[in-house]
Amino acid sequence: MTSRRRRGERRVTIEDVARAAGVSSATVSFVVNDKPGVRLTDGTKERVWRAVEELGYRPNAMAQTLSRGRSSFIGLVADAIATTPFAGQIIRGAQDEAWRHGYVLLVANTEGVGDVEANALAMMHEHRVTGVLYSTWYHRKVEPPAGLGELSHVLVDCYADDPDVPAVVPDEVQGGRLATTVLLDRGHRRIAFITSTEPAPATFGRLAGYEGALTDRGLTLDPDLVVAVHPEQEGGYTAAATLLDRPDPPTAVFCYNDRVAMGLYDALRERGLSVPGDVAVVGFDNQEVIAGHLRPPLSTVALPHYELGVEGVRMLLALRAGELEPPMRRLITCPPVMRSSV
Protein backbone atom coordinates (compact mmCIF):
# COMPACT_ATOMS: atom_id res chain seq x y z
CA MET A 1 0.00 0.00 0.00
CA THR A 2 1.29 3.47 -0.86
CA SER A 3 2.32 5.52 2.18
CA ARG A 4 0.46 8.71 3.20
CA ARG A 5 1.24 11.52 0.75
CA ARG A 6 3.77 14.12 1.81
CA ARG A 7 3.26 17.84 1.84
CA GLY A 8 3.81 19.38 -1.59
CA GLU A 9 2.84 16.26 -3.56
CA ARG A 10 -0.14 16.26 -5.92
CA ARG A 11 -3.61 15.90 -4.48
CA VAL A 12 -4.76 12.31 -4.03
CA THR A 13 -7.73 11.52 -6.27
CA ILE A 14 -10.62 9.12 -5.97
CA GLU A 15 -9.00 7.08 -8.77
CA ASP A 16 -5.85 6.68 -6.62
CA VAL A 17 -7.94 5.30 -3.78
CA ALA A 18 -9.79 2.96 -6.15
CA ARG A 19 -6.53 1.51 -7.49
CA ALA A 20 -5.08 1.05 -4.00
CA ALA A 21 -8.24 -0.66 -2.73
CA GLY A 22 -8.75 -2.76 -5.88
CA VAL A 23 -12.26 -1.42 -6.51
CA SER A 24 -13.95 0.96 -8.93
CA SER A 25 -14.05 4.73 -8.49
CA ALA A 26 -17.84 4.45 -8.12
CA THR A 27 -17.40 2.07 -5.19
CA VAL A 28 -15.06 4.52 -3.47
CA SER A 29 -17.63 7.28 -4.00
CA PHE A 30 -20.39 5.10 -2.54
CA VAL A 31 -18.31 4.37 0.58
CA VAL A 32 -16.99 7.86 1.39
CA ASN A 33 -20.37 9.48 0.72
CA ASP A 34 -22.23 6.79 2.68
CA LYS A 35 -24.56 6.35 -0.27
CA PRO A 36 -27.90 4.91 0.91
CA GLY A 37 -29.31 1.82 -0.78
CA VAL A 38 -25.94 0.56 -2.08
CA ARG A 39 -24.96 -2.90 -0.84
CA LEU A 40 -21.26 -3.42 -0.25
CA THR A 41 -19.49 -6.04 1.84
CA ASP A 42 -17.78 -5.05 5.05
CA GLY A 43 -14.49 -6.25 3.54
CA THR A 44 -14.87 -3.87 0.58
CA LYS A 45 -15.67 -0.94 2.86
CA GLU A 46 -12.71 -1.76 5.06
CA ARG A 47 -10.32 -1.82 2.07
CA VAL A 48 -11.62 1.54 0.86
CA TRP A 49 -11.29 3.23 4.25
CA ARG A 50 -7.81 1.77 4.72
CA ALA A 51 -6.77 3.24 1.38
CA VAL A 52 -8.37 6.57 2.25
CA GLU A 53 -6.43 6.70 5.50
CA GLU A 54 -3.06 5.59 4.12
CA LEU A 55 -3.19 7.85 1.07
CA GLY A 56 -4.51 10.83 3.02
CA TYR A 57 -7.46 11.24 0.65
CA ARG A 58 -9.83 14.14 1.43
CA PRO A 59 -13.22 14.03 -0.33
CA ASN A 60 -14.25 17.13 -2.22
CA ALA A 61 -16.70 18.96 0.00
CA MET A 62 -18.64 20.53 -2.87
CA ALA A 63 -19.01 17.17 -4.60
CA GLN A 64 -20.31 15.66 -1.39
CA THR A 65 -22.81 18.48 -1.04
CA LEU A 66 -24.14 17.88 -4.56
CA SER A 67 -24.25 14.12 -3.99
CA ARG A 68 -26.12 14.30 -0.70
CA GLY A 69 -28.23 17.37 -1.37
CA ARG A 70 -26.79 18.84 1.82
CA SER A 71 -23.39 19.81 3.18
CA SER A 72 -21.44 18.74 6.23
CA PHE A 73 -22.26 22.07 7.85
CA ILE A 74 -24.64 22.72 10.71
CA GLY A 75 -25.49 26.40 10.97
CA LEU A 76 -25.71 28.40 14.17
CA VAL A 77 -27.30 31.84 13.92
CA ALA A 78 -27.10 33.82 17.16
CA ASP A 79 -27.73 37.34 18.39
CA ALA A 80 -24.71 37.85 20.67
CA ILE A 81 -23.55 34.61 22.26
CA ALA A 82 -20.21 34.69 20.45
CA THR A 83 -19.35 37.93 22.24
CA THR A 84 -20.77 36.90 25.62
CA PRO A 85 -18.20 34.86 27.57
CA PHE A 86 -20.46 32.60 29.62
CA ALA A 87 -23.11 32.11 26.90
CA GLY A 88 -20.38 31.32 24.38
CA GLN A 89 -20.34 27.80 25.84
CA ILE A 90 -23.41 27.16 23.66
CA ILE A 91 -21.14 27.37 20.61
CA ARG A 92 -18.58 25.05 22.18
CA GLY A 93 -21.20 22.44 23.08
CA ALA A 94 -22.77 22.57 19.62
CA GLN A 95 -19.36 22.43 17.95
CA ASP A 96 -18.21 19.41 19.98
CA GLU A 97 -21.41 17.49 19.29
CA ALA A 98 -21.34 18.40 15.59
CA TRP A 99 -17.77 17.08 15.31
CA ARG A 100 -18.82 13.82 16.95
CA HIS A 101 -21.26 13.28 14.09
CA GLY A 102 -18.93 14.38 11.31
CA TYR A 103 -20.27 17.91 10.90
CA VAL A 104 -18.68 21.35 11.07
CA LEU A 105 -20.41 24.26 12.82
CA LEU A 106 -20.91 27.35 10.66
CA VAL A 107 -21.47 30.31 13.02
CA ALA A 108 -23.04 33.68 12.23
CA ASN A 109 -23.25 36.25 15.04
CA THR A 110 -25.85 38.88 14.09
CA GLU A 111 -26.01 41.14 17.19
CA GLY A 112 -29.79 40.93 16.74
CA VAL A 113 -29.79 43.10 13.58
CA GLY A 114 -32.65 42.02 11.31
CA ASP A 115 -30.90 42.52 7.95
CA VAL A 116 -27.76 40.75 9.16
CA GLU A 117 -29.88 37.86 10.44
CA ALA A 118 -31.70 37.57 7.09
CA ASN A 119 -28.40 37.56 5.20
CA ALA A 120 -26.98 34.93 7.57
CA LEU A 121 -29.94 32.63 6.97
CA ALA A 122 -29.67 33.17 3.22
CA MET A 123 -25.99 32.18 3.42
CA MET A 124 -26.91 29.03 5.37
CA HIS A 125 -29.44 28.17 2.68
CA GLU A 126 -26.87 28.68 -0.08
CA HIS A 127 -24.43 26.39 1.70
CA ARG A 128 -27.13 23.72 1.93
CA VAL A 129 -26.57 23.29 5.66
CA THR A 130 -28.05 20.20 7.27
CA GLY A 131 -30.01 22.52 9.54
CA VAL A 132 -29.76 25.59 11.73
CA LEU A 133 -29.57 26.20 15.47
CA TYR A 134 -31.15 29.58 16.16
CA SER A 135 -29.90 30.86 19.51
CA THR A 136 -30.12 33.83 21.86
CA TRP A 137 -27.68 34.74 24.62
CA TYR A 138 -30.38 34.72 27.29
CA HIS A 139 -33.52 32.63 27.69
CA ARG A 140 -36.51 34.34 26.10
CA LYS A 141 -39.44 33.96 23.74
CA VAL A 142 -38.70 34.80 20.11
CA GLU A 143 -40.53 35.27 16.85
CA PRO A 144 -38.55 33.04 14.47
CA PRO A 145 -37.53 34.97 11.33
CA ALA A 146 -39.24 34.03 8.09
CA GLY A 147 -36.10 32.60 6.50
CA LEU A 148 -35.72 30.07 9.30
CA GLY A 149 -38.82 28.22 8.18
CA GLU A 150 -37.10 27.21 4.93
CA LEU A 151 -34.53 25.16 6.87
CA SER A 152 -34.64 22.39 9.44
CA HIS A 153 -34.11 24.22 12.70
CA VAL A 154 -34.02 24.02 16.49
CA LEU A 155 -34.28 26.99 18.84
CA VAL A 156 -31.56 27.07 21.52
CA ASP A 157 -31.94 29.04 24.77
CA CYS A 158 -35.15 30.48 23.35
CA TYR A 159 -38.59 29.27 22.30
CA ALA A 160 -41.56 30.20 20.12
CA ASP A 161 -45.26 30.47 20.94
CA ASP A 162 -45.88 27.35 18.88
CA PRO A 163 -45.06 24.35 21.11
CA ASP A 164 -44.37 22.23 18.02
CA VAL A 165 -41.30 24.28 17.11
CA PRO A 166 -38.30 22.28 18.42
CA ALA A 167 -36.54 24.14 21.23
CA VAL A 168 -34.11 23.45 24.05
CA VAL A 169 -34.07 25.75 27.10
CA PRO A 170 -32.78 25.77 30.70
CA ASP A 171 -35.12 24.47 33.39
CA GLU A 172 -35.51 27.70 35.34
CA VAL A 173 -38.04 26.23 37.79
CA GLN A 174 -35.72 23.36 38.69
CA GLY A 175 -32.83 25.81 39.06
CA GLY A 176 -34.77 28.06 41.43
CA ARG A 177 -35.92 25.08 43.45
CA LEU A 178 -32.35 23.79 43.68
CA ALA A 179 -30.90 27.13 44.83
CA THR A 180 -33.50 27.38 47.58
CA THR A 181 -33.10 23.74 48.60
CA VAL A 182 -29.36 24.25 49.07
CA LEU A 183 -30.17 26.85 51.73
CA LEU A 184 -32.95 24.79 53.29
CA ASP A 185 -30.58 21.85 53.61
CA ARG A 186 -28.23 24.09 55.65
CA GLY A 187 -31.05 24.62 58.16
CA HIS A 188 -32.24 28.06 57.02
CA ARG A 189 -35.94 28.87 57.23
CA ARG A 190 -35.96 32.66 56.76
CA ILE A 191 -34.83 32.65 53.13
CA ALA A 192 -35.25 35.77 51.03
CA PHE A 193 -35.34 35.93 47.25
CA ILE A 194 -34.02 38.98 45.41
CA THR A 195 -35.79 38.59 42.09
CA SER A 196 -35.89 40.57 38.86
CA THR A 197 -38.30 43.22 37.59
CA GLU A 198 -37.85 41.98 34.03
CA PRO A 199 -40.74 39.92 32.58
CA ALA A 200 -38.64 36.98 31.44
CA PRO A 201 -38.86 33.17 31.71
CA ALA A 202 -36.00 33.25 34.23
CA THR A 203 -37.94 35.65 36.47
CA PHE A 204 -41.11 33.58 36.51
CA GLY A 205 -39.37 30.21 36.61
CA ARG A 206 -36.89 30.94 39.40
CA LEU A 207 -39.62 32.46 41.57
CA ALA A 208 -41.82 29.39 41.00
CA GLY A 209 -38.89 27.17 41.98
CA TYR A 210 -38.26 29.21 45.15
CA GLU A 211 -41.91 28.93 46.18
CA GLY A 212 -42.00 25.22 45.33
CA ALA A 213 -38.96 24.45 47.48
CA LEU A 214 -40.49 26.24 50.47
CA THR A 215 -43.79 24.42 49.99
CA ASP A 216 -41.95 21.08 49.83
CA ARG A 217 -40.63 21.76 53.34
CA GLY A 218 -44.01 22.85 54.71
CA LEU A 219 -43.06 26.54 54.79
CA THR A 220 -45.33 29.42 53.83
CA LEU A 221 -43.92 32.05 51.51
CA ASP A 222 -43.50 35.43 53.21
CA PRO A 223 -44.08 38.09 50.50
CA ASP A 224 -41.94 40.55 52.49
CA LEU A 225 -38.93 38.33 51.80
CA VAL A 226 -39.32 38.66 48.02
CA VAL A 227 -37.79 41.87 46.67
CA ALA A 228 -37.82 42.74 42.95
CA VAL A 229 -34.93 44.81 41.59
CA HIS A 230 -33.17 45.61 38.35
CA PRO A 231 -30.98 42.49 38.05
CA GLU A 232 -27.59 44.16 38.35
CA GLN A 233 -25.09 44.82 41.14
CA GLU A 234 -26.84 48.01 42.24
CA GLY A 235 -30.13 46.12 42.57
CA GLY A 236 -28.62 43.64 45.01
CA TYR A 237 -27.05 46.47 46.99
CA THR A 238 -30.35 48.39 47.42
CA ALA A 239 -32.37 45.24 48.17
CA ALA A 240 -30.13 44.55 51.16
CA ALA A 241 -31.51 47.54 53.07
CA THR A 242 -35.10 46.41 52.49
CA LEU A 243 -34.34 42.93 53.81
CA LEU A 244 -31.84 43.59 56.60
CA ASP A 245 -33.78 46.45 58.19
CA ARG A 246 -36.76 44.21 58.86
CA PRO A 247 -37.45 43.26 62.52
CA ASP A 248 -36.90 39.60 61.57
CA PRO A 249 -34.31 39.67 58.76
CA PRO A 250 -33.48 36.62 56.66
CA THR A 251 -30.56 34.37 57.49
CA ALA A 252 -30.10 33.40 53.85
CA VAL A 253 -30.68 34.99 50.45
CA PHE A 254 -31.21 33.46 47.03
CA CYS A 255 -30.19 36.00 44.39
CA TYR A 256 -31.66 36.12 40.91
CA ASN A 257 -28.18 36.17 39.39
CA ASP A 258 -24.53 36.50 40.38
CA ARG A 259 -24.43 40.24 39.66
CA VAL A 260 -27.21 40.79 42.20
CA ALA A 261 -25.27 38.65 44.69
CA MET A 262 -22.20 40.84 44.15
CA GLY A 263 -24.20 43.92 45.19
CA LEU A 264 -25.57 42.09 48.21
CA TYR A 265 -22.01 41.18 49.25
CA ASP A 266 -21.09 44.89 49.13
CA ALA A 267 -24.00 45.86 51.37
CA LEU A 268 -23.34 43.09 53.87
CA ARG A 269 -19.68 44.08 54.10
CA GLU A 270 -20.61 47.71 54.81
CA ARG A 271 -22.80 46.55 57.70
CA GLY A 272 -20.03 44.43 59.14
CA LEU A 273 -21.87 41.20 58.35
CA SER A 274 -20.10 38.11 57.09
CA VAL A 275 -20.95 35.54 54.43
CA PRO A 276 -21.94 32.86 55.28
CA GLY A 277 -21.57 33.42 59.06
CA ASP A 278 -24.35 36.02 59.31
CA VAL A 279 -26.09 35.59 55.97
CA ALA A 280 -25.75 32.69 53.54
CA VAL A 281 -25.97 33.57 49.84
CA VAL A 282 -26.68 31.59 46.67
CA GLY A 283 -26.54 33.12 43.20
CA PHE A 284 -27.57 31.98 39.73
CA ASP A 285 -25.85 31.79 36.29
CA ASN A 286 -22.32 30.85 37.45
CA GLN A 287 -20.64 33.79 35.75
CA GLU A 288 -17.15 32.59 36.55
CA VAL A 289 -15.58 36.05 36.46
CA ILE A 290 -17.94 37.03 39.30
CA ALA A 291 -18.88 33.93 41.28
CA GLY A 292 -15.42 32.42 41.45
CA HIS A 293 -13.74 35.68 42.49
CA LEU A 294 -16.03 37.03 45.21
CA ARG A 295 -14.78 36.63 48.76
CA PRO A 296 -15.90 34.15 49.86
CA PRO A 297 -16.46 32.48 46.46
CA LEU A 298 -20.15 32.34 45.63
CA SER A 299 -22.18 29.14 45.60
CA THR A 300 -24.49 29.36 42.62
CA VAL A 301 -26.59 27.48 40.09
CA ALA A 302 -25.15 27.24 36.59
CA LEU A 303 -26.97 27.86 33.37
CA PRO A 304 -26.28 24.73 31.28
CA HIS A 305 -24.99 26.56 28.19
CA TYR A 306 -22.69 23.79 26.99
CA GLU A 307 -25.44 21.19 27.37
CA LEU A 308 -27.90 23.44 25.49
CA GLY A 309 -25.54 23.44 22.50
CA VAL A 310 -25.07 19.67 22.65
CA GLU A 311 -28.79 18.94 22.91
CA GLY A 312 -29.58 21.41 20.15
CA VAL A 313 -27.40 19.46 17.69
CA ARG A 314 -28.84 16.14 18.83
CA MET A 315 -32.39 17.38 18.31
CA LEU A 316 -31.53 18.82 14.91
CA LEU A 317 -30.02 15.57 13.65
CA ALA A 318 -32.98 13.60 15.01
CA LEU A 319 -35.32 16.03 13.27
CA ARG A 320 -33.49 15.56 9.96
CA ALA A 321 -33.69 11.78 10.35
CA GLY A 322 -37.41 11.92 11.14
CA GLU A 323 -36.75 10.53 14.60
CA LEU A 324 -37.46 13.54 16.84
CA GLU A 325 -40.04 12.58 19.43
CA PRO A 326 -42.06 14.76 21.86
CA PRO A 327 -41.65 16.85 23.85
CA MET A 328 -40.52 19.33 21.23
CA ARG A 329 -39.50 21.79 23.94
CA ARG A 330 -36.75 20.16 26.02
CA LEU A 331 -35.71 21.36 29.48
CA ILE A 332 -32.06 21.07 30.50
CA THR A 333 -31.19 20.74 34.19
CA CYS A 334 -29.32 23.61 35.86
CA PRO A 335 -26.56 22.12 38.07
CA PRO A 336 -25.27 23.46 41.42
CA VAL A 337 -21.77 24.90 41.73
CA MET A 338 -20.90 24.76 45.40
CA ARG A 339 -18.30 27.15 46.80
CA SER A 340 -18.08 28.87 50.19
CA SER A 341 -21.06 31.22 50.61
CA VAL A 342 -23.47 28.81 52.34
For the structure shown, list the relevant keywords.
single chain; 342 residues; alpha/beta; 434 Repressor (Amino-terminal Domain); Rossmann fold; 3 domains; six-stranded parallel β-sheet; four-stranded parallel β-sheet; 12 helices; 12 strands; 17% strand
Name the shape in a single word. elongated
Question: Taking all residues together, what is the mean pLDDT?
Answer: 91
Low-confidence stretches: 1-7
Class of the largest domain, according to the CATH hierarchy?
Answer: Alpha Beta
Gyration radius, rounded:
26 Å
CATH topology of the largest domain: Rossmann fold
Helix and strand pattern: HHHHEHEHEEEHEHEHEHEHEHEE
CATH architectural name of the largest domain: 3-Layer(aba) Sandwich
Protein name: LacI family transcriptional regulator
Organism: Jiangella anatolica
GO molecular function: DNA-binding transcription factor activity; transcription cis-regulatory region binding
Keywords: DNA-binding, Repressor, Transcription, Transcription regulation
Structure description:
- There is one protein chain.
- The longest helix is centred in the middle third of the chain and has 16 residues.
- Helix 1 crosses helix 2, helix 1 packs across helix 3 and helix 5 packs across helix 12.
- By secondary structure, this protein is of the alpha/beta class.
- The N and C termini lie far apart (64 Å).
- 40% of the residues lie in helices and 17% in strands.
- The strands form three sheets. The chain has a six-stranded parallel sheet, with helices on both faces. A four-stranded parallel sheet has the order 7-6-8-9, with helices on both faces. Strands 10-12 form a two-stranded antiparallel sheet.
- The chain folds into three domains: 55 residues, lambda repressor-like DNA-binding domains (434 Repressor (Amino-terminal Domain)); 126 residues, Response regulator (Rossmann fold, 3-Layer(aba) Sandwich), CATH 3.40.50; 130 residues, 3-Layer(aba) Sandwich (Rossmann fold).
- The chain is elongated.
- GO terms for molecular function: DNA-binding transcription factor activity; transcription cis-regulatory region binding.
- This is LacI family transcriptional regulator.
- It holds the Pfam family Peripla_BP_3.
- InterPro entries: HTH_LacI, LacI/GalR-like_sensor, Lambda_DNA-bd_dom_sf, Peripla_BP_I.
